[in-house]
Amino acid sequence: MRLERVVLRRLAMPLVSPFRTSFGVEDTRDVLLVQVEGPEAVGWGECVAMSEPLYTPEYVDGAHAVIRSHLLPRLQQRGDELVADEVATVLSPVKGHQMAKAALETAILDAELRAAGVSMSSRLCGVRDRVGAGVSIGITDTIGELVELVSGYVEAGYLRVKLKVEPGWDVEPVRALREHFGYELPLQVDANASYTLADAAHLSKLDEFDLVMVEQPLRDDDITGHAALARQIRTPICLDESITSVAAALDAIDRGAAAILNVKAGRVGGYLEAKNLHDVCFERGVPVWCGGMLETGVGRAANVALASLPGFSLPGDISASDRYFRRDITEPFTLESGHLAVPQGPGLGITPDLQVIDEVTTLKEEIIWQAT
Ligand code: OSB
Ligand code: MG
After folding, report:
1. Fold annotation for 122-341
2. Which among 80, 175, 201, 225 is most buried, taking Cβ atoms within 10 Å?
3. What is the strand order of the sheet 24-37 is part of?
4. In what order do the strands lie in the sheet with 260-263?
């Protein structure tokens, strides 16, 4: 793939409402957008790293720096021969930085697929033309506020609700949602690593509410703890933060630490590795679903394509654009009977709106591609 220019942009995207988790509050999404340009096509990738290193060690300023100083120079050494399939291998000497690597690989893959006229969904061997939409609900000040918020999403047609929890905000809000919405509503919780194994007895109080899963109750590096917790609670455990690679996933599955996996391309270094992760889980009969990171239309398009693979048997954190943004930087994704349509056009199948992008751009850096 011949490339001539890379544009790195930082966008400030105001969220429709602040998103609160056990690790912090976000009211503006600081997006790092990667655009690669060649004579045949332009490709886009969104880096999902957040402003602060609280969810994972990566953060957006760090991702920006590692792309500029370490990742792009390595890719440029491959010259015109560079293809998306080898991006991960070329970048593998650089440890970690999966979200930065994923954004670059996605942009190059998108350009390649656009030039070839192939959609991301077909490249990943997707089998669905629409995917089930779930919604992730941040921590609210009161239970009344929570019930009102969830009512709106249920009325909009979301197929399942994920509630962010933390010590002090768990059993009572879950009880309130079950009392209000009944047991038909698929409901799950996400702790973002805010408990310890000493909380096992407390977490077992969630068992009576018939949750689809509890996501990442313990620390990222505590696979042994998750396996021990799995023996003490009935609610299935899903891992998110812990799953940084296919190898980490197999380890967690084999040790009984995870019954379900949240697949996020940014966390494992790209959509091609995310597909590999899906494939090993599918082979083993481990259900997976597509996680989200408050993406704009660029990242959302890629997530929807990923979720079209056959093993994504549970609704993902794939919401309509208006769940997060009043105005998206692509044509908005909308909810139709609880689903989002899988883009069918070449590459990501969306068209970034340069005028809207310019309006929210806080920093723009152009790099001439020099095949060294
Ligand atoms: O843990 O899944 C998570 C958002 C940012 C960082 C981590 C997580 C999340 C979400 C939101 O839960 C998912 C979404 O709707 O994009
Ligand atoms: Mg999570």
Report:
1. TIM Barrel (3.20.20)
2. 225
3. 42-47, 24-37, 5-21, 361-368
4. 134-137, 160-164, 187-190, 214-215, 237-239, 260-263, 288-290
Q: What atom of ligand 1 comes closest to residue 241's alpha carbon?
A: 1
Residues carrying CATH 3.20.20.120, the chain: 122-341
Q: Is 264 assigned a catalytic role?
A: yes
Separation CA 103–CA 309 (nearest Å)? 20
Its CATH class, for the domain covering 5-117+352-368, is: alpha beta
Is the distance from the beta carbon of residue 294 to the nearest atom of ligand 1 less than 6 Å? yes
Output the CA 318–ligand 1 centroid distance in Å: 10
Task: Give the mean pLDDT of 17-45.
Answer: 96
pLDDT band for position 99 (50/70/90)?
A: very high
Pocket lining: 58 vs ligand 1, CB cutoff 6 Å: no
Average model confidence (pLDDT) across the chain: 97
In this predicted model, what pLDDT tens digit does every residue of 50-80 receive, in sequence order?
Answer: 999 999 999 999 999 999 999 999 999 998 8
CA 192 to chain centroid? 14
The vertex-47 CA angle with 302 and 141, nearest 5°, equals 95
Q: Tokens representing 60?
A: 């957006």
Q: What is the pLDDT of residues 306-353, one digit of tens each?
A: 999 999 999 999 999 999 999 999 999 999 999 999 999 999 999 999
**245 burial type by CB count under 10 A (0-12 exposed, 13-18 middle, 19+ buried):** middle
Cα dist from 259 to 238, 254, 292, 316, whole Å: 6, 10, 19, 16
Ligand 1 atom, smallest distance to 190 CA: 1
- Say yes or no to pLDDT of 297 above 90: yes
Q: What is the pLDDT of residues 253-263, one digit of tens each?
A: 999 999 999 99
